[in-house]
Amino acid sequence: MNFLYSFVLVPLVLMMVIAVLRDVRTIRRVMAVGSSVQLVLSFVLLAWFLSLRALGVQDEMLFRSDLVWYPSLNIALSFGVDGISVLMIVLSAIIVFTGSFTSWAINEKAKDYFLWFLMLSIGVFGFFITVDLFAMFMFYEVALIPMYLLIGVWGTGRKEYSAMKLTLMLMGGSAFLLLGILGIYFSSGHTTMNLLEIAKLHIPVDAQRWCFPITFLGFGVLGALFPFHTWSPDGHASAPTAVSMLHAGVLMKLGGYGCLRVAIYLMPEGAQMYTTLFLVLTGISVIYGALGAIAQTDLKYINAYSSVSHCGMVLFAILMFNTTAMTGAVMQMLSHGLMTALFFCLIGGIYGRTHTREISQMGGLARIMPFMCVCWVVAAMANLGLPGLSGFVSEMNIFVGAFQHPDTFHRVITLIACCSIVVTAVYQLRVVGKIHFGEVVNEHHRALTDAAWYERIATVTLILFIAAIGCFPFFTVDIIHGSLGEIVSKFPALPF
Amino acid sequence: MDIPMSFYLLVSFVMFFAGVFGFITRKNMIAMLMSLELILNSVNINFVVFNRFLFPEQMEGMFFTLFIIGVAAAETAVAIAIIINVFRSVNNISADDIQKMKY
Amino acid sequence: MDTKFIIALLILAIPAFNFLLLGLGGVKMSHRTAGLIGTIGLTVVAVLSYYTAITYFFDYGCMEGAYQPVIGPFPDEANPAFHWLQFTDHLTLDLGIWLDPISVMMLVVISTVSLMVHVYSNGYMHGERGFQRYFAFLSLFTFSMLGLVVATNIFQMYIFWELVGVSSYLLIGFYYTKPEAVLAAKKAFIVTRFADLGFLIGILILSYYTNTFDFAVLTDVNGPVLTSPSGATFLGISVFSWATALLFMGGAGKSAMMPLHIWLPDAMEGPTPVSALIHAATMVVAGVFLVARLFPLYFILTPEVLTGIAYLAAATSLYAAVVACVQTDIKRVLAFSTISQIAYMLVALGVSGLGGHEGLGYMASMFHLFTHAFFKALLFLCAGAVIHAIGSNEMDRMGNLRKYMPITHITFLIACLAIAGIPPFSGFFSKDEILVAAFEKDKLIFFCQYFVAGLTAFYMFRLYYGIFWGTERDYGKHLPHEAPLNMSAPLIFLTVLTCCTGLLPFNELITSDGRPFDLHTEWGIALPSIAVGVLGIVVATVLYRRPNPLPQRMADSVRTLHRAAYRRFYFDEIYMFITKNVIFRRICSPVAWFDRHIIDGFMDFQAWWSNALSFRIRALQSGSLQFYVGVFIFSILVIAGLLIAFVF
Amino acid sequence: MDIASITASQVIFFILAAVILAGSVMTVVSRKLLHAAVYLLFVLLATAGIYFLLNYHFLAAVQISVYIGGILVLLVFSIYLTSQVGEKMDEPGIVKKTVTMLISMGGAVFCFWVLCTGQFPYADQIHLNEIDMHAIGQSLLGTERYQYLLPFEAISVLLLACIIGGILIATGNTKKED
Predict the structure, then answer these.
(1) For C464-472, what is the mean pLDDT?
(2) Of A286, C161, C172, D158, which one is least surrounded by beta carbons within 10 A?
(3) Tell me, what's the pLDDT at D45?
(4) Stretches in chain A below the pLDDT threshold 70
């Protein structure tokens, strides 16, 4: 019995328990307890992982276990984690935890909602703990499908359209992905689907030439790579709060993580062939998303475009092939996950009260809901990279790392990407100024209440982690550094 | 035997294609059912004829026919039950007009 | 750990702790408690800063006849591998403490002014909503500013640089229900953020070519960076020029140099003590501090950038002085005066050399920074007292206030004399050194600064007469009254500082190379500068002491110029045009449109055509059994025919 | 073949064939449903005749009893239940008719062509041995090779299902109406 199983089993057990419950209040409590257990488990995993490393265990992945599943295609349920996946698991656990609390107010079909929500979390956790390409793909799909229902049923606005768009585009991405995975599998000699073993084999350069772009694109769609990002604004705008949180917070990270773990790690030569193309695309994502966010008037759209920009940064950094930038990429995944979840949580809270997300219809909320306002400002500051919060350390890692690239083109494009920090400041401050500061626009808003206790739990948890990463970056950076060695060592040509 | 096999087959072909023609052109469901009977009959004739002319020692063709007759009876019974039921609810048995159960 | 570092860490930790305490628990506290916590904390910080300064200058700072930087405590010997953030093998980001003459001097300046502002705020903000929040933000700012000056490496400086930006944002926008305040805060943040982008890029370039962030390596005149720099160029310009110019862009943003100055006048929307602390004495000199900190780098590697800085600063000082002459909002006048004076400091740095008497400009710059901090803070606090009494910023609502507010009147007068460069007040000494330095290096700048000195005296006294002399206005029932003790005490304290700081021997303490050099007043330059100052005062006296039509007539005679100056030479309009029309309308909106309609439209088009195609195909699946049979038979025939024709 | 050598069975075959051809065509083109049913009756009868001609007496008996006695009666009843006597059915659309005609004729011609050109390994002369009832019974209820217990049972179950289904369908609506 591998410890990692618990991350899939706990949600499964929770699903079973919730399936037999009837009372909404009980379901919520079970959900709260269950997600807390998951959070605790994730920290146990982190501590265990660190202690094993401290004891000098040098394996690339710890907690390895293989369970042959379909021998004729060499598919196995192989589990294993390294520092990056451990951090991702912690992130997912945090988001699931806060998401459960944010979903407290859901009354309509609460049971089904939480069932699908848990299903989503199974997919996410499963993805991060497996090292088998096929199992990864399977969990990826498991995470995608509930999204459709969660948005389509519990969403707001044009929910059917958005749900359909999101699902179809991501499915399109996963079609690419499947092709890529099969390409990797067969061109590596169809002996194994296990990442670690494939990494030791050599995939012929000719195969990499076509496998890499489609794998990268496949994951890139989920990572909101320009021009395949348009599902994100619509999807996020329509999704219920906790689903937006989980989706932007964790699911989009699947893209970045997959790019790093599968595309780059397995196909370094292919990656180098396409660097320029993808750098340009991700660079566009970064700037374009930020500029797009300025012109939006819907809070969720603003945040969605901001996510495009920040997730673009993740892919951008991954393509720099050096430890610093990749560290930054992983940090950015963590940081963006936390802060975007915080944003969506707050937007959900505000929307739930004011019933509007148009920034022009709000104003002076700071006086009405001071707690929310403070959290919002913290989130905005994290987003625009204030030192002491997580955004800063991740962005600085990315910029410094990317700028260390000896090639001038890389450095110039890094400088262009840097400009996003100004643009980010513009749209974040614009929103803060419009909705929280100034005069109260709508007199009805004066009667609104501040954050409820469950929202407070969610936001405070997120802020704590954001600040923790921001103030003590060395902790996460050390973990990530330790795990990037294998990946970066595939790129010996670059001095690092 | 003084009638060539092709004569029998010819009769069966004509009957078959008459059935096809009827099935496609008729709007009334009972009429379609009748066309179906024609088709089945022509097939039956084929079976029997081939049995007799090609494998006179055996009885497969005959048994096939026998079973087809059985199935046809069953099918007709159910079909007519449905047709009458449909007629009762929509007062019409034209195949074109019964669209409600689509989609 | 060494005691000096424990003290230095305490200096940083107390405001940080206060921020957390007041920020998290402030709501539960009474105003009095919150004010008390903030003020006591700052008192301790001030005392510790003085202690640090005294011990530094007279105990451990001076080694082998020169003041050396004392760096610690991280990374310390006990744990050398620990880095706050490790980028690469060479580039690490550590948070340490760097004590050298200028940082120690800045500690003194910041803690003193901050303490005064804290005390003053207890009176000024009395009964305001969000009092606790205000003190929390003040603490945050003090923490960040202190952190900025003791930074051991350029990245640490950047961190605190950003933090001061944010605290400035929060404090300018303190009255968050006032739309102008919110806009001003946003503007300040975004403009400085834009400048910080330059700073960041400068850091990236510099660190790439030098492989270090540490000031110790970057400014070591015998070190590898300055002795054997990389010869790389980009677009034909040396990378170091790029780097230092971009770094200066960050400094120009914070120090409100043209053309990035536009945020500072608007920042006056914040509470007046905040303006005194942030936008007069401390944060706005961060740019000067940055250049001073990296001075060897600027001087040795990129003297052309330094010259550029001097010219830019000279132009800025002239511009700001001209604009200040016609503003009517007293805080705006002071804001432009601040811009002008900071430009003075940068001029001094720009014309300075390195070492000995060559480094006169450097010393003068720091000297002026030091004296200016006090008298400008004093001016702002006086203005605050006036605003507090009148309830308006506009000069035409004021007049003849000397009757009501004697203490404020006297202190303001002294500060005006100081800024006008009249001996024996502090401003005279520092400004004089600057002029001497400029005279030795560049005559054009010298005359420009000379002229600006006159203008300074003129507009300050215009302000002075406008407020305290002139016609008495209708003040309504509530006559203006002298500020309470907790507001006037800081005024008096700062006045004392203004009177005596000019006598400090800066040439022995704070010099470009740490070694003292001889200094004597150049009367040949000092006397004319006094004369110019007096001339300015006289002109102002003639024009504004008693109400008369002269000023109006003069303004009418150069109406275009007057109008342009009043509108600050249309800088804001230009920026507005660029941001609103060019960036927002021509870039952002089209990008959003492009995204919604082209990119997303393309995706929707995919959906649309597959849908349309499906509809077409669906027509085949009509559900008509007869149609199916027809197709079925036909297909069977075709297939059978094909089979027969080609297979059998 | 010349007239003199015409045998009785040939005559009968031609009569039967003519009835079948005419009957089936009339079944599908007659515009009155009841007439169509009567034509169908003739077709089915003639088919039974063909079975007789081929010496499948049992089959012919089954044909007459099941088809004519069961199915056709059922059809006639349902015609009476669902339409007015003398009501004419709609003429099918001309396009549909033409296309269908083309397909059917084409199919028939194609089959005929295959028949003419194809080589079948059959003997023109066959002996018409009678199949005795005993053998049929044995085959139906045996489990050996060429014995058909399984289909027989399957058909039985099918018929049972039809009975139940028929009842359910027929009574389904009345229940609701109650």
Answers:
(1) 79
(2) D158
(3) 92
(4) 1, 492-496
In a domain, B98, yes or no: no
What is the span of the domain harbouring residue B20?
Answer: 5-90
Is residue D63 a part of any domain in this protein? yes
CA distance C235 to C248: 19
Number of H helices, E strands in chain C: 28, 8
Q: What is the CATH number of the domain that holds B51?
A: 1.10.287.3510
Question: Is some CB atom of chain A closer than 8 A to the CB atom of C79?
Answer: no
Per-residue pLDDT, B1: 53
Give which of C626, C635, C636 to mutate to test B binding, by max B Cβ within 10 Å: C626
CA distance C562 to C541: 20
Mean pLDDT by 10 residues, chain B (103 residues): 80 91 87 90 90 82 89 88 82 70 55
- The Cα–Cα gap between C287 and C295 comes to 12
Q: Using a CB–CB cutoff of 8 Å, tell me whether C623 touches chain B.
A: yes
Q: Which stretches within C327-442 are classed as H helix? A: 330-350, 360-390, 406-420, 426-441
Specify the pTM: 0.81
CB contact under 8 A, C644 and D114: yes
The first and second tokens of residue D76, run together, are 């006639």
**Nearest chain B Cα to C618, which residue?**
B103
Is the CB of C582 inside 8 Å of chain A's CB atoms?
A: no
Chain D touched by B5 (CB under 8 Å): yes
Under an 8 Å CB criterion, which residues of B touch C? Answer: 20, 23-26, 32, 95-96, 99, 102
B102 contacts C629? CB cut-off 8 A = no
Q: Is residue B99 part of a domain?
A: no
Residue B97 lies in a domain: no
Q: State whether residue C630 sits within 8 Å of chain B by CB.
A: yes
- Gap between the Cα atoms of A137 and A183, Å rounded: 14
What angle in degrees, to the nearest 10, is found between the helix axes of C523-544 and C550-557?
110
Tokens 């008037």 appear where? A297
Residue D19 has pLDDT above 90, yes or no: yes
Taking the C-alpha atoms of residue C262 and residue C57, their distance in angstroms, rounded to an integer, is 38
Measured distance CA(C383)–CA(C372) in Å, rounded: 16
Residue A281 Cα to chain centre, angstroms? 19
Query: Is D114 within the bounds of a domain?
Result: no
Q: How far apart are CA A469 and CA C121, in angstroms?
A: 34
Tens-place pLDDT, residues A39-91 = 999 999 899 888 888 888 777 788 888 888 888 888 888 888 888 889 999 99
Confidence of residue D123 (pLDDT cuts 50, 70, 90): low
Interface test with A, best of C144, C595, C597 (most A CBs within 10 A): C595
Quick one: pLDDT band at residue D23, thresholds 50, 70, 90?
very high
Neighbours of chain B (3+ CB pairs under 8 A): C, D
Residue B100 covered by a domain: no
Q: Cβ(A211)–Cβ(A281) under 8 Å?
A: no
Residue D178 has a pLDDT of 44
Chain C residues inside the 8 Å CB shell of B16: none
In chain D, whose CA is at the least distance from the CA of B5? D124
pLDDT, residue D41, reads: 92
- C-alpha–C-alpha distance, residues A21 and A38, integer Å: 20
The residue in chain A having the minimum alpha-carbon distance to the alpha carbon of residue C129 is: A367
Report yes or no: C255 and C288 within 8 Å, Cβ to Cβ. Answer: yes
Alpha-helical runs (H) found in D30-148: 33-53, 57-62, 73-82, 94-117, 133-141
Q: For residue A65, which phi and psi values (nearest 5 degrees)?
A: -155, 145
The count of domains in chain B is: 1
pLDDT band at D133 (very low <50, low <70, confident <90, very high): confident
| Average predicted confidence (pLDDT) for chain C | 83
- Interface contact D4, partner C, CB < 8 A: no
Owning domain of residue D39: 6-90
